[in-house]
Automatic annotation (TrEMBL):
Membrane topology (UniProt): Multi-pass membrane protein
SUPFAM superfamilies from the UniProt entry: MetI-like (SSF161098)
Species this protein is from: Streptomyces coryli
UniProt-recorded name of the protein: Sugar ABC transporter permease
Entries under Pfam families matching the protein: BPD_transp_1
Keyword Flavoprotein assigned: no
Biological process per Gene Ontology, one example term: transmembrane transport
Length: 335
């Protein structure tokens, strides 16, 4: 048996080593890093088609367009660097300002009317009726074919001089404007009617949101004596506001990007590619004219980037404003 004196005489060499902090890391099994590397490689391989498409068809053209926005490029000669001249010319162009005015008018008129029609029809279709699936498909169908060239051609024939709309308004109201397409004061409203007719997509989203409204709230409000309008205003709209915000954001962006219908419906009227007296001169239509008809691809690129900045600014304003009118489950404007 070792005595305390012998331990003392042994000195520091005999003292046990100080224990450090325990190593809490579990030992990695062999080959773990290699397996993770193989899994990451497999993930990148599956993502490679999208990555290639994004780099070649989106990011690459955007970078080239940003460079061309500061050059004089006519599609035939090499780009010549001119700095901010395209932007200064753009802001001084009266037709460019006209295109901004027409586009804003189209967005302000078309988007609220389209969403109002979508919400109204969604409220009707949310009720249980016979043939409900048929009606939903019928109201959604215009959204599938509304953006096609054939529908735009038919729409142009309907609103042209002596077309069905022209004959109807002459016979019913005694108003003769010679067709909406040929009148610079009316051609834009034909495009607004066309976009309102395509309310199917936001209608489906509203229908999905209406299914999330608890029926108990309607029953309690009805017991308290609340009428249909008060139930809609105090229950349906607050709960539906996130869906409303999504539809407003999506449809506003789509309205800024209108091109095909405006170019086809208003094209050729009055000898102008964008409607008579620039009545349907939306922003993208004028961008097309500058880029492909006037071979001003540098100026068209500058216009495209201004449109991107404008849409980004509008999107930022909508996100900022949602705190005042969008109600989430965690509270007003919370996420």
């Amino acid at each position: 048996m070792t005595s305390p004196s012998s331990l003392k005489s042994a000195g520091p060499a005999a003292a046990p080593a100080a224990a450090g902090p325990p190593d809490r890391r579990a030992p990695r099994p062999p080959g773990l890093r290699a397996r993770r590397r193989r899994e990451n490689l497999a993930g990148y391989l599956f993502m490679s088609p999208w990555l290639c498409g994004f780099l070649l068809l989106t990011a690459g053209p955007m970078a080239v367009s940003l460079y061309l926005a500061f050059t004089d490029f006519n599609l035939f000669d090499s780009p010549k660097w001119i700095g901010l001249d395209n932007f200064s010319e753009m802001f001084g162009d009266a037709r460019w300002r006209k295109s901004v005015e027409v586009t804003l008018l189209y967005v302000v008129l078309g988007t609220p009317l389209k969403l109002a029609a979508a919400l109204g029809v969604a409220l009707l279709l949310a009720q249980k009726r016979r043939g409900q699936a048929f009606y939903r498909a019928a109201f959604y169908a215009p959204s599938l074919v509304g953006a096609s060239v054939s529908v735009a051609i038919v729409w142009k024939a309907i609103f042209s001089d002596d077309g069905p709309v022209d004959r109807a308004q002459r016979g019913l109201f005694g108003v003769d404007v010679g067709g909406w397409i040929g009148d610079p004061d009316w051609v834009l409203y034909s495009l607004v009617v066309l976009t309102v007719w395509q309310f199917g997509a936001p209608m489906v989203i509203f229908l999905a949101g209406l299914k999330q409204v608890p029926q108990e709230l309607y029953e309690a409000a009805e017991v308290d004596g609340a009428g249909p309008w008060r139930r809609f205003w105090n229950i349906t709209l607050p709960i539906l506001s996130p869906v409303m915000f999504f539809n407003v954001l999506l449809e506003t962006i789509h309205s800024f990007q209108i091109f095909a219908s405006a170019y086809i419906v208003g094209g050729g009227a009055g000898g102008n590619a964008c409607g008579p007296a620039d009545g349907s001169l939306v922003y993208t239509c004028y961008l097309y004219v500058q880029g492909f008809e006037n071979s001003r691809m540098g100026l068209a690129s500058a216009m495209a980037w201004m449109l991107l900045l404008a849409v980004g600014l509008v999107t930022a304003v909508l996100f900022w404003s949602q705190r005042r009118w969008v109600h989430y489950e965690g509270g007003v404007g919370s996420r």
